[in-house]
Design a protein that fits this description.
Blueprint: E1 8-13, E2 16-21, E3 27-30, H1 35-38, H2 42-46, E4 49-51, E5 54-57, E6 62-65, H3 66-70, H4 79-82, E7 104-107, H5 109-116, H6 123-139, E8 144-148, H7 149-155, H8 160-170, E9 174-176, H9 180-193, H10 200-211, E10 216-218, H11 231-241, E11 247-249, H12 251-260
Helix pairs in contact: 5-8, 6-12, 9-10, 9-11
Length: 261
């Protein structure tokens, strides 16, 4: 797998290493319990190389893997044993990848399917469709919509009438190709979240949204994408790769957040 290297800002503050890939995401963890980090000078601590495998301090010959950081292991002692937390992820704010003054929303295939689908007799599916239609009607004009080759491929599968409605909806939107960079980031996300190979497209949607600098990824895939249990791992993985993690949510969650504001 090719290496992805990005310029990152690294600082040492309040006993923690803090990393800001691209100035957009904060990824931090404590040095307590790691003798090499604890005995290093501030200058040595911030002289670090970051790539998709983890963090590397050439001056003190120390390496921390991404897999270890994700499970709270930053050296001689495990963070889960010391009670320390690994990271804080902060978005850069609205309009991170803005186009024509509008923030960018990546529309994953399930959003498109519910928006263009026929009414369902299933109460929950009907509720999901209504939330999708409502979000698009009330919020859609405020966003620059983006889809991708992955969305097009999935949208072309199934009943011919449903396919026609999906393709008609997305035909005028900005669409991203699946690049080698996206393939690499998707591999990283699959490894971090332990995603089965048959769900690779789910990782690809998240990778493409991050590469496009989307502010928001809308999806009804709550198992692999809009999943609160895996989003922190996705954010940490993207941070190491040099990308900000977009807000990931269902249309229903976004409507609820608007009510709470």
């Amino acid at each position: 797998m090719p290496s992805i290297r990005h310029k990152v800002d690294v600082s040492f503050e309040d006993g923690r290493i803090a990393v800001r890939p691209g100035g957009s995401v904060l990824f931090s963890f404590p040095i307590a319990g790691n003798p090499r980090l604890e005995n290093a000078t501030p200058e040595q601590l911030v002289h670090v190389e970051v790539d998709e495998t983890g963090m590397h301090w050439p001056d003190i010959d120390e390496d921390l893997s991404l897999a270890g950081l994700l499970r709270g292991d930053w050296g001689q002692f495990m963070g889960r044993e010391t009670g320390e937390s690994m990271m804080v992820c902060e978005g850069e704010g609205p309009e991170y990848g803005a186009r024509e003054g509008k923030p960018v929303v990546y529309l994953e295939t399930s959003f498109v399917s519910y928006l263009t689908g026929r009414p369902s007799k299933d109460p929950r599916k009907a509720q999901m469709r209504e939330a999708t239609l409502r979000w698009w009607k009330e919020e859609g004009e405020k966003w620059h919509p983006v889809v991708s080759e992955a969305v097009w491929t999935e949208a072309e599968d199934g009943d011919s009438e449903a396919v026609a409605r999906r393709l008609e909806f997305i035909k005028g939107f900005e669409s991203m190709d699946i690049s080698r960079e996206a393939e690499t980031v998707a591999d990283m996300l699959m490894s971090a979240t332990k995603l089965d190979a048959k769900y690779r497209t789910d990782a690809m949607h998240m990778a493409l949204a991050a590469i496009r600098k989307a502010d928001l990824l809308l999806s009804w895939n709550c198992r692999h994408i809009a999943n609160s249990a895996t989003i922190p791992k996705v954010a940490a993985t993207l941070a190491v790769a040099g990308y900000a993690c977009p807000a990931i949510a269902t249309p229903e969650q976004r409507l609820e957040e608007r009510i709470d504001e």
